[in-house]
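If you are new to this repository, start here. Below is one unmodified record pulled from the training split, so you can see the exact layout before writing a loader.
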Amino acid sequence: MMNNKILCALLLGGLATPLAAQSSKDLKTPAALKKAAYNVDKYVAEIFRRKKLSVPKVVDDPTFLRRSFLVAAGRIPTLEEASSFLEIEDPAKREMLTQYLLQSDGYRSHMQNYVFDLLRAKDNDRDGAEAYAAPYMHFVQQSVAKNTPWDQFAHSLVSAKGIAWEDGNGAVGYYIRDKGMPLDNLSLTMQIFTGERLECAQCHDSPTNKWERMDFYELAAFTHGQREINDGVWNRAMRSYNDEDFRRSDIGRLFYWLRDNIHYGTLADQGAGRIKLPSDYQYKDGDPGEMIGGRTHFGKKIRSSDRRDSGKSRVEFSDWMTKDNPNFDYIAVNRMWERVMGSPLTYPVDVYVKPERTASPSLTSYLTRLMVDLDYDLRAFQNVLFLTKTFQFAANSKAFEAGVPQAFNGRQLERMSAEQIWDSLVTLVAEKPDSLAKRKFSNNIYYNNKPILVGEKTMSDLAKEVMAIEDPKVYREYAEALLETIKSGGGSSSASKDMMMMAAKSRPGPAKGIARASELSAPAPASHFLREFGQSDRELIESSTKEANVAQILEIMNGHVEKMVVANSGASVYDALKKGTTEADKARYIYYAILSRPPNKSEMNMLMRDVIDGSKESYENLVAALVQTHEFMFVQ
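And here is the target side for that same chain:
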């Protein structure tokens, strides 16, 4: 049996600095987070008392282990992680496991999937790593890794301006993602961050909620006026060539590369603050083509002028959205509750509900205050939820039948997401799944799929130089000089050539092959395992699915899973054969690796009698059988 010191070394090895060190606020100390969890449990217990029911029992260690890993880190535990947790007796081990998971790169990876999906963030479809999406994806990735407070992150996205390739300015990609569709972007912003559904009101007064068409355009005025920096210079410079074959010429190809990879990823000023009503506007409160200023309808009331462009209305809108806004606070809470507990406080998760209309107004008010007091630190907030007894509840059908909302009644059985299934299979293949290849970001310039000017100029440098040009003649001269530099090979020094060779070997972009889902192309190609199992195509908010189909069955039984795991003699799941000294030990460790639990007595008897004969094939058959079970595919 493994002792407590080994558990601490394995689970807490990366925790030299506790959560309290991330903030000077006393509210983030382990003791304070634990007390907050206790308070949450008190409010939940009151819900059960009102129904004259006992609170549900907590799940056993194996269920808690697997649930915690899948919810916090997006994968099952490795064989070593599972055995370290299961084979010791320590009343604090669940708490230690929570700390380990929330500080792991697995948490970052799983949270990154969540934010990518929420924002519909996509790697660019075009060839090359230099397109605008690269700095945007990098910005989101770094924000998650740094645990940027949710209000700051949202504010950065909605108030973004400038050049996407400028250092630290990838947030501009939030608007570039919906370029040419600013009204749709506004609808999505309101849905993601404030829980208000305005998409119907874009065309008419909504028949399903309070929003009218005028309300929509008054909000849209704040983010209106999105355009590229110096947007006319490129066109005038290009037209000066007056050549039918311009686009196919060397200089033409460079011009279009500059347009697609630099101009496209820029955003001038920070909002006009006013907008014209559409030509088909049909209500008495405005006229088609009438210029109106911005106005908010909940939270703090702010306005913008209809007589002159503001130039900073997106900043004002971002301030309004993220500061002292009950909608913003509640939606953040509701999303995190659903993420940890499996069901939101109220359905749908992205619709704002006043506290007094929730199952426990006291709990709702407490949680929203907690979110604010924790400075919108989503990791600390989730830490509180993971420490609750509520997270550990076993599902209770009697409580559900008595009217206890699913949000408080134990995590309901559901199939893993596509990313959780993939990452769990990766865990069965790789001994250290969180240390596999990562998506790479580079500020190097890649032209025609080759690095150029390495060590001399970065994409950030190039973008700033190009955006500073306002004269078409100067632009043309700059492009022609740049082309000559590219043709001549750029830096001629041996050091520059060595740097270019290194850049050519280490291409930026998503990882390939066996890696966590967060590091692969977002979304994965249509034929990839992830898409087969319901990964979102990132066209709509959280549009993934967990519906089963025949293709998934074939993938599990004799497709990708067979090659990736079962028939792969080097897969880490077979470390169980080295770890165990007897056939029963080996079978038990395979159960640890796949189901995060030991086999029960009847299963072990059956295995020793009918399945395991000591041969490699018998263990492969056991692995194949276990990865096809509902127990493997579902989160309990």
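Two things worth knowing about this chain: DSSP finds 31 helices and eight strands in the chain. Residues 11-24, 126-130 have pLDDT under 50 and may be disordered.
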